[in-house]
Every structure is written in C-alpha cells, then in structure tokens.
C-alpha cells in the first residue's frame, strides 16, 4: 500500500506543476495582450479587464502552490 500512496503524491505533484505552469502562461499572455491592446487603442479602459484578471490568476497560482506543499507534508 505505501507504494500506491507514493504514486498518488507523484501524480498530484505533476498535476500541480502543470496547473501552475498553465496559469503562468495565461498570465503572461494576458499581460502581453493587454499591453498590445493598450498600444493600439490608446484607451486605458480597454486594458482594465486584463489587469483585473492578472491578480486573480496570481492568487490562483498562490493557492495551488500552497495546496501542493501542504499535501507534500
């Protein structure tokens, strides 16, 4: 049975790393798209949704990494 528990921790660790990586890619993409949108429109209101979503993604990354480290202990 201990072997199955170790495999589950490895799978959970891999899934957590993939989720964190995916959230980072989405966050970087959101920053780039918001910046390009701001350059093309010169309107600060058009980039507001991008910059409101970025802290939400950062908070999700924090929660995922915190849960991942809690499960490792």
Helix-strand blueprint:
Elements: H1 2-41, H2 48-72
Helix pairs in contact: 1-2
Q: What helical percentage do the residues reach?
A: over 70%
Q: Tally of extended strands?
A: 0
End-to-end separation: 18 Å
Count of individual domains: 1
Computed Rg: 17 Å
Share of residues in strands: under 5%
Describe the sheet with the most strands. Answer: none
Structural class: mainly alpha
Q: Could you list the spans in which at least 5 consecutive residues all have pLDDT below 50?
A: none
- Secondary-structure element series: HH
- What is the global morphology? elongated
Please, how many helices?
2
Mean pLDDT: 82
Give keywords.
transmembrane helix, transmembrane, 73 residues, 89% helix, mainly alpha, 0% strand, 2 helices
Can you give me a brief rundown of this structure?
The chain crosses the membrane at residues 14-38, 44-64. With 73 residues, this protein is mainly alpha-helical.
How does this model look, in words?
This protein has two helices and no strands. With 73 residues, the chain is mostly helical. Helix 1 (2-41) runs antiparallel to helix 2 (48-72). The protein is elongated, with a radius of gyration of 17 Å. The model has no long low-confidence stretch (mean pLDDT 82).
